[in-house]
Amino acid sequence: MTENRILAVDDDPLLRDFLSEALNRSGCRVDSVSSGEEALEKITENDYDIILTDVRLPNMDGVEVLKRARGSLPDAQVVMITAYGTVQNAVEAMKLGAFDYLLKPLSVDEIDLVIGRALDHKRLLLENKLLRSEVKEKYGFGNIVGRTPEMDKIFELVRTIADTKATVMITGESGTGKELIAKAIHYNSSRREGPFIRVNCPALPEGLAESELFGHEKGSFTGAIRQSRGRFELADGGTLLLDEISEINLHLQGKLLRVLQEREFERVGSGIPIQVDVRIIATSNRDLKKWIRDGKFREDLFYRLNVVPIHIPPLRERKEDIPALARHFLEKYNQENNRRIAGISPKVNELFLDYSWQGNVRELENYIERAVVTAKGSVLAPRDFPSELTFGRIRKPSGQIEAGPTIHQAERELILKTLEAQEGNRTKTAEILGISTRTLRNKLHEYGLKDAGGKRDSE
What we know:
With 459 residues, the protein is α/β, with parallel strands linked by helices. It is 47% helix and 13% strand. The strands form 4 sheets. The protein has a 5-stranded parallel β-sheet with strand order 2-1-3-4-5, sandwiched between helices. Strands 7-8-11-6-12 form a 5-stranded parallel β-sheet. A two-stranded antiparallel sheet has the order 9-10.
């Protein structure tokens, strides 16, 4: 375990000795000095977890030590030592960033309590900083898979607009990665240290949607037992994602339009306007222009949201990305599940390229996760995937059966291709074709293919 380092600053030698003895007993390494000037020298030479300084020091007081320390050691926690008459100075120091203060005369128990809390606080800050760094890396452009010209244009646009305040509307089918693009915008902007708040609009409870977005005052409606902040307030200084915004009702759309226009809102039950600094990103899997024509979505709200439009094409329109996405998900779920699947067989990649992917990238990810968890071999093969993947392939006539053959020829080719895709497994082949294994055997015998596939019904 790393030893915690503490700098104690006080012009009273007896108090310095007392602090050193108390902190050494708790397992900390302590340096002690008698002045602010000596403290600054120590700070430039060493990395301290906590700086414990008296408010009153000769020449340079403890508040000045605090200010200088914040510049040199921003992660160090500063605790002020004060007498009863200078408590106000310590409180002012806390407004400048001090963690807490200790009141003279000091006790060992109080020192242990405050120092323990300060160390826990620093640990949480460092963990949060690491988490933010990992999140930023996760949502960096290099980790969003997609190399088709359409996706390259989207990435370039995201880079361009990420650090602006412009409202963004992201459209695309379910599962295309709209939220991923929204997070890439947030975590590649100067708002990355601020909150990213997602509102799942279809899940907003009926009658409480306005409260969820804008908050409410105590007693403003039945059940409002305390004041509550809404999502807009929680997102102050960051980004608010209105996911599937088409699903909110027209009344709430009007309220939202006013917020976007005025840049302020009121909690339910309050007449006091609240201003927040929030960047709005909205997503939708609907054809909003059609919804406008049908009277389901406000045209004025649409144009307020659609300042920067981003449309993500469905996976079936960018199939060049499928192999890279599949490898990405394979690596991800190998790591998460402590598996060592080496790769994906060429036959699986063929199935992927022929499949329609109605669920888009999310469907592909689900297939890969399931296969990684359940696979018996070292390479993902067709047997590791559910039958609908192959069924989705053979349903599509293009590239499978050309126009013109006889019914007999088409049936023969369909059976052979399905049997091949299932690696000769007749039970799975019969299931996909919607026939019994006995009928399949008869058909193979009829076509002179009774030994085709090599695997029997029991396999």
